[in-house]
Amino acid sequence: MAFEKLRTNRFNQWVIIHLRYLVGFAFFPSGLVKLMGNRFTGISTDNPIGYFFEALYQSGFYWNFLGLAQITAGILLMTQRFAALGAMMFLAILTNIWIITISLSFKGTWVITSLMMIAVFVLLIWDKHKLLPLFNYKTDLKEYPEPKTAWGIAGAIYAVSCIALYILDPVKGNSYEKWLIGIFVIVIVLTFIFTNYKAYKNQN
């Protein structure tokens, strides 16, 4: 079957793993802003977009909950093991964001959210064998190779590093914080190099 060939191809597996990282990371900036209780935009409330985000911000805990949901979905995707659950959660959240960007006529943003929607559907199709039993209990589960533990560990390192980089302020921070930022950046780069070198070595 064509899907089985695509699913078992090592290069395709590598692409999906990093697509999960990329899509998961996409929720971190906006999610952390909400989770920390900060405003998402400085647009005036005279603008419908600014008015909308200010209303969400004034909702209190709901604003923080939105951020927590986004971060949770991103982390689940980056763990690889729970990526299917993360993709489903991501789809639920992103669908709302996508409709908002279209209905409020965000300039250019709707293009980005549309591309993100396509990426999420690709991830869901990739794990369709895990989702089909939800709609048909008689479906025979097909086993496919899953990402090795190293990819999950790498995802955890990426997630922790991204959160740390957001909390640390490279502009207002002191020299100690700037050193920490440098360390986290190095950790991300080294993790990327190590995991991909290991994957390349195992393939050859």
UniProtKB/TrEMBL annotation:
Keyword Acetylation carried by entry: no
The entry's keywords: Membrane, Transmembrane, Transmembrane helix
Keyword Lipid biosynthesis recorded: no
GO cellular component: membrane
Record-annotated membrane-spanning stretches: 21-41, 61-78, 85-104, 110-127, 148-167, 179-197
Protein name from the UniProt record: DoxX family protein
